[in-house]
Amino acid sequence: MGADTNRTLFIPGGSLLPFLLLFGAFFMAGCAAAPSEQAVEETLVRHFEERGYRVIALELGAIEPISTGERSYMGTPAYAVGIRMLTLEGIGSKQSTAPLVFMNSIVRIREKPGRKGEWLVYRVEGIPVP
Predict the structure, then answer these.
(1) Origin, by domain of life (predicted)?
(2) Residue 88 and residue 126: Cα distance in Å, rounded?
């Protein structure tokens, strides 16, 4: 005789609705709102100005959440920001004759711990400035 392959999920009380509501509540609690484009732009401008560069032009791409497994700082909400084009100009000792232009880069930002809605850059890929 063959094994019984008809298996079903048993939920006490027979109703699936409370289970789905509970699951939905936990799922929504784990989701954070993505930063606005304006918040991302302000974060990037501040990041590069602190390093001696003025942002002349910035064209953002997609803002996508980073997977939970990729987060390294206490599960703080984090996002990968695509940068289609970025033009920087050196300030002070970093002045050069021509602006620096970067295309198709990725910057990762995360929410500041204890400061909801404030973001900081923690990884830059494809923009080799000190």
Answers:
(1) Bacteria
(2) 13
* Whether the predicted pLDDT of 26 surpasses 50: no
pLDDT greater than 90 at residue 92: no
Question: Domain locations in the chain?
Answer: 33-125
55 CB-contact burial (10 Å; exposed 0-12 / middle 13-18 / buried 19+): middle
Q: Residue 98 in 3-state DSSP? A: coil
pLDDT band at residue 96 under the 50/70/90 scheme: confident
Residue 114 has pLDDT above 70, yes or no: yes
* Token couple for 61: 């791409």
Residue recorded with tokens 């703080």: 76
Distance CA(113)–CA(110), nearest Å, equals: 9
Q: Are the C-beta atoms of residues 83 and 61 closer than 8 Å to each other? A: yes
